[in-house]
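Reviewers of the previous submission asked for a worked example of the structure-prediction workflow described in the proposal, so we include one complete record here. The input consisted solely of the amino acid sequence. No template or homolog information was supplied to the procedure at any stage.
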Amino acid sequence: MMKLLTAAALSLALAAPAFAGDDDYIGPLNVPRDQWLSTSDIVQKLESKGFKVREIEVDDGAYEFEATDAAGARIEGHAHPATGEVLSTRPDND
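From that input alone, the workflow returned the following structure tokens.
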């Protein structure tokens, strides 16, 4: 019985990321550093998507950025270090 409960709990834990919303960054991504785009390349990719980047830094295996979106709202987000894909955004309430 204990093995069955342990297996069920492990299955749920492994499946949890699949249930995360599109705006939920799970991190870290474990991308080798030599595959990362430069900070300026990431900023260019973000700006091509309508963001005006105010600040960017490495955080927990991804790029974390503060920006203004196309509507003028201040946001915080994470970008994939190798592709520049936006992994998550949320309002910047600071």
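The beta strands are 52-59, 62-68, 74-79, 86-91. We consider this example representative of the routine output the project will generate in years two and three.
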